[in-house]
Amino acid sequence: MTGSKSVNPLPYSDFRSDTATAPTPDMFAAMMKTSLGDDVYNEDDSVKKLERYVATLCGHEAALFCSSGTMTNQLAHRVHLCNPPQSAMVDIRSHVFNYEAGGISFHSQAAVYPIMPSNNKYLTVEDVASRLVLDVDVHYAPTRAISLENTLNGTIMPIEEIERIRVLTKEHGIKLHLDGARLWHASIATGISMKEYCSHFDTVSLCLSKGIGAPIGSILVGSEVTIKKARHFRLLFGGGWRQAGLLAEAALWGIKNNWPTMEDTHRRAKWLERVFLQVGCQITNPVDTNMVWVDTTNAGFTVDDLIVELAKKGIKISGSGCQARVVLHYQITDEAVQQFIEVLRKLTHTPRMRVNVDLIKTSMLEHPHSIYDEDNKMALSSPPLSPDSPILGQIQTLSKDQSPSVNRLEKKSSDSDAEDEVLPRSSIQNGPSMKQCLLEESTEPALDINEPYQPTSRRSTPRPMSASYYEPERMTARVREVEQAFGLRKSFSEHENLAGDNAPSPRMIRTTQSLDFQEIEARTVIEQLAAAAAEQQRPQTAVSTGGDKKKVNKIQYRLAHNPASKAFKRASVRIVRWGSFLNREA
Fold first, then answer.
1. Cβ–Cβ < 8 Å for 427, 388
2. Starting from the edge strand earliest in sequence, which strands make up the sheet with 282-283, in order?
3. Which end of the chain is more exposed for a tag (fewer CB within 10 A), N or C?
C-alpha cells in the first residue's frame, strides 16, 4: 500500500490545485466495501462511521458529511447568524469572502466586514478587536461571528494567535468558525494535533477532496445542537444525498493513508521554492505547507512561457503574466518536481531581450506636447526632441564582462568599431542610466536601432511632400516673401548668399523619405530673417496698420507650418513610435 500512495493515475502531473487528485486503485477497492444506506434518513453506516471518526479526531461531539467546503462553510455561518441585523468578520483574502458567491450575505442575511491583516500573513487579535462592532449603536450591524482560515494561501496561522482571538470572542459572546480546508497540512507541519486546533472553535470545516485525496466531500464538526441544525439547513440548501457511503469510504481511506504523506509534499514544496529563488523569482507568500506563490518578473520569463514549456513535459500549472500559484499533493512525485526544475533552468539560461520600460516614460516627458495636442500652449515651453535624447542615447548592449553572448555577436561583425557599441548618450541626467536599459542576446532577429520604426498598419507608399520641400528655389521665394511683407527689400541683400552658392541644396533639404534633422537648418535661416525683420519693425509698431498686422500673422503662420518644421515633427513622432515598439517588445 505504501508504494501506491504516490501513484498518479492521470497521464500528466497537475500542479494547479490539490483538488486535482484522482482516485487510485486502492481507494476504489475501499469504496467497494461501502454500505448502501440512505443518508437523508441517517441510515448509511459508512457515512456515520466517517462522521464519528472525524468528530473524535477533532474533539467535537458530532460531524456532518457534505458535498463541498462551500456548503459546510455556509451551513456553519447560517447556524451562527440567526438574528438580523448582524455581521460576520472575515479575512479579506479568505475563501468564504472571495469564492463562495457572497453566500454569507445571501443565506444568513448578514453584513460581511473583510479585514486585511496588518502583517500581511494572518489576522491578529489587534486586527479583530479594533474592528469589532458591539451591540451599542442601532446604526451598525453587531458582530455575531468571526471566520478564520488555516491554512490561508499555504501560510499557517499560529495557534497562539488563535487562542488570543478565542478569548476575545468568548468575552463578547461571538461565535468563532474555522475554514480548515487545509488544516490537515497545518497539523502535519507544526505537529499540533487536530484536536488541539479544533478545540478553540465552535465549528470547523474540513475539506476531504484536497490533500486527503477523496473524489468529493467536506465535513463540518461542532456540537450536537449545532450539527442537528446544520443537517436541517443542509436539506434546505438541497444538499441531502442518498447512498453517500461510496464517497464516505473513499474519504476515510484518504484520511488514514494520504494524510501521513503530507510531510513529503511539504518537502517537495520547499525544494521548488529554493529553485525558484535560485533562478531569480520572488516568493510572495511564506511556503509553510504545500503552496508556492511565485512572481517571475525578475527571472526574465513569464508564467505564460513557463506554462508552454511545462506542457511539453506533461505538467500543468495555473497563472498568467508574472504571477503563479504552484500547489503540490500526494500524487506529485519527485520525478515530476525534477522535470519542473529542469524546465525552470532551461528558461533561465535562454537568452532573452530585457528593455527598461521607464525609458519610454522619460522620452515622453522630453517630447513637445504639440505632437499630441497642437492646441496645448504648454508645447511652446517644452524642450524639443534632439538626436541626443535618451530615446536614442540610453540604449546600450551589454559589456563584455556582463554577458558572453555579446562577445559572440561582436565576433560575427568584424567591421564594427568599439565606439559603435554605444549610441550617443543624452546630456539630460534625470533619465534612466545606461545600466538600467540593456539589450541582451535574443532568439529573435536583431533589431536595427538606426532604422526608423514603421508600423505594419501604415501604407507602404510614401506620402507625397509639398513642391517647396523638394525645390530650393521655392524656399528662396519663401524668404523673399518674408522680406517683402516686412518692407526689407534692402536688408535682403545682406542675405543674398542664400540664393547664391550657399543656397539650400537637395542635400540640406532631403528628398528621401527617411527624414533627418538637417531640415532644421533651413528652418533656422527663415527664423533668423523673421527675427531681423521684427527687430527693424519694432520702432514702427505704434504706427502699424491693421493690414500690416494681418500680413505679420500670415507670415508667422507660414513660418510655423513650413515644410522643415513639419519634417521635424514627423521625425519626432517616428522616434516616439519606435520607443513604443520597444515597450511592446519588452
1. yes
2. 282-283, 291-295, 323-327, 318-320
3. N
